[in-house]
Write a structure and sequence with these properties.
2 domains, five-stranded mixed sheet, two-stranded antiparallel ribbon
């Protein structure tokens, strides 16, 4: 029985190695094409600070591709298996945590990802799938020797002498043969460890370079055809938020944002111009609800509240709010930073066209801080907003990850 298991085990390992390698390759390639979308998926878990979420979003797909290639060719198999085990444990923790906290997200394991409609989650399927992959990775970690693997070629580069201690007649001869076999095994192990170390360094280097390239690719260029600037009415801050749009617009788009929220920044970069065009074209009013969910992420400076207050101060003067809103996301501070100072907020407001003296008094007095707090409280208790950004059209939550979804919802409600 033991002999049969010893003979079959490398073949089972080969099957596990190739299957796991294909999964990693598929996972990495499906995400590497759209780094911004995978950043949305990572942030949807609400577990990582912005810098770590970005590092994971930009570097993980490249690492997955690298691990997949190593497994498929069978090079440094134990290293690739160990990385697989670590990643799969992290993924299981993330999905279980999301399910336990009642989040409605797609895991983003094979592209897409992010918030999904309630009831459309697949947590059980995702947990069981990753558990199965974890078993395969554990098998390879424990028994890395497989057939038709580059590891065999690495071992073959060590010159060895075929010897069988059992055929030696004297004890001394058997001991010499056993010592020779031990030395040969040590040489193979050293060569294998050297190759493994080189592959580890290569994976780190490639993942680092890949993360830098992905980060650069996620810098969205300005639209080729500029959208006409909005020049219509802007309401002062009120119970319905800050509303811009023409009186004849039949549909209202409610946008729930936090100026410290990195995904809100991504949303503004990707879709802000297209959303603003809805107001410019008289198709919709845009109601901006500026929340302070992330005050705790600004090292005691209450940046979300201060930024929302400053936005409301520009809205007191009308059109400057539109440009100010754009500027704050263009210069968005990182989570876990102190955020922009009041002087910087005032400077951006003046750049947007606000009167400096009036704006300074409004910002420094915190005139609209209570308004922001009330909007946030209402979002929690009445509107049941679970995070930012959230977009609603006709009281229906819309998948904001593609601006076309919002445009389609606005067009569908034109007759209502």
């Amino acid at each position: 029985m033991q002999a049969r298991w010893t003979a079959v085990r490398p073949w089972l390992g080969s099957a596990a190695r190739v299957a796991l390698g294909v999964v990693w390759l598929w996972a990495g390639l499906s995400k590497v094409g759209d780094p911004g979308q995978f950043l949305v998926a990572v942030n949807a878990y609400q577990l990582l600070p912005d810098w770590l979420a970005r590092l994971m979003a930009y570097g993980l797909p490249v690492l997955e591709i690298g691990v997949g290639v190593l497994l498929i060719v069978g090079l440094a198999t134990r290293l690739a298996a160990a990385i697989s085990v670590a990643l799969l444990v992290i993924f299981e923790i993330g999905v279980i945590s999301a399910a336990a906290r009642g989040l409605s997200i797609d895991c983003g394991c094979f592209g897409s990802g992010g918030t999904v409609a309630a009831g459309n989650t697949r947590y059980t399927q995702e947990i069981l799938r990753d558990l199965g992959l974890l078993i395969l990775a554990g098998f390879l970690l424990w028994w890395p020797a497989t057939r038709y693997a580059a590891d065999e070629a690495v071992a073959a580069t060590v010159t060895t002498t075929a010897v069988n201690p059992g055929t030696r007649r004297t004890r001394a001869a058997r001991e010499r043969a056993e010592a020779l076999l031990a030395r040969q095994r040590q040489q193979v192990q050293r060569r294998t460890r050297l190759v493994t170390a080189l592959m580890a360094v290569l994976l780190v280097a490639v993942s680092g370079v890949g993360a830098a390239v992905q980060a650069n690719r996620n810098r969205v260029p300005a639209p080729a055809t500029p959208v006409a600037a909005y020049t219509g009415p802007v309401s002062p801050a009120g119970a319905d938020g800050i509303v811009l749009g023409y009186p004849d617009a039949k549909v209202t788009v409610d946008l729930y944002e936090d100026f410290m929220c990195p995904i809100c920044g991504l949303f503004e970069t990707r879709s802000g111009a297209e959303i603003l065009a809805l107001a410019t074209q008289h198709k919709a009013k845009l109601a901006y609800h500026m929340l302070n969910f992330l005050d705790e992420s600004s090292k005691g400076t209450a940046y979300s509240t201060r930024a929302a207050n400053a936005a409301a101060c520009t809205a007191d003067q009308g059109l400057p709010f539109v440009k100010f809103h754009e500027l704050l996301y263009a210069h968005q501070p990182k989570e876990q930073s102190t955020g922009l100072t009041d002087d910087q907020l005032i400077a951006y407001g003046v750049e947007a066209g606000a009167n400096r003296a009036t704006l300074t008094t409004c910002v420094q007095s915190g005139k609209h801080a209570l308004w922001t707090q009330q909007l946030t409280q209402e979002a929690f208790t009445t509107t049941h907003i679970e995070g930012t950004p959230t977009v609603r059209v006709a009281n229906q939550t819309i998948d904001w990850q593609n601006a076309q979804n919002i445009i389609d919802a606005v067009n569908a409600n034109q007759g209502s």
